[in-house]
Amino acid sequence: MNEIEAVKALKKGNKLAFKQIFEKYYNRLVTYITTYTHDKEQSEDIVQQTFINFWDDKLKLDENKSPKAYLYAIAYNRYIDSLNKDKRREKLLERIWEKALRDRILEDTEMLEKRIQKMKQVTDSLPPKCKEILHMNKVQGIKYKEIAEQLGISVKTVESQMRIAFTKIREGFEKDDFTLFLLFGKFRWANKL
């Protein structure tokens, strides 16, 4: 049966006519779509969808024309649809990724704020001289020898007071060793003492 006869039979639901057209155009359409996608597997999916649409719309076929142009048009439109779908999927994934990143940043910021508050509570509970020495060293960046000179005390006393401060801070953050490491890195930056 020639193409015109196959189209007429197809419009009546003849599956053999559909098979004949499928076998004639399937590989040609895959090759055509692959020039756009550069992916044979994706092209095969698009062409399969093309033939599903072709079957579903068989009543629209012109009985006096070859189905070739119609098939190529459907295949190209399915390719464009898949391209738009991929772009929408990429945008959705981008939005999900950005939201996850924002949530993580917010979570990290909130945790850091809680840890800074905890550090403030612990340091506020230190004896006044101990708190002053800790502040001078960790916030102002003054060395032990200079602290001793400014306060008129020995370097050993400064060291002793710093040891007391670190012990109290460690006790306050017993369950969170990493936090202690992070906080002392941020301690100067926070300047909350």
Radius of gyration: 37 Å
Order of helices and strands: HHHHHHHH
Total strand segments: 0
Structural class category: mainly alpha
Count of all domains: 2
Low-confidence stretches: 177-183, 185-193
What is the helix fraction of residues, given as a range?
Answer: over 70%
Tell me the overall shape: rod-shaped
Explain the layout of strands and helices.
Layout: H1 3-11, H2 15-37, H3 40-56, H4 68-124, H5 128-139, H6 144-151, H7 155-172, H8 177-190
Helix pairs in contact: 1-2, 2-3, 2-4, 3-4, 4-7, 4-8, 5-7, 6-7
Notes on the protein architecture:
- The protein has 193 residues and is mainly α.
- The protein folds into 2 domains: 3-92, Rna Polymerase Sigma Factor, Chain: A (Orthogonal Bundle); 125-190, Arc Repressor Mutant, subunit A, CATH 1.10.10.
- The protein contains 8 helices and no strands.
- Helix 1 packs across helix 2 (15-37), helix 2 (15-37) runs antiparallel to helix 3 and helix 3 (40-56) packs across helix 4 (68-124).
- The protein is rod-shaped.
- The relative contact order is 0.08.
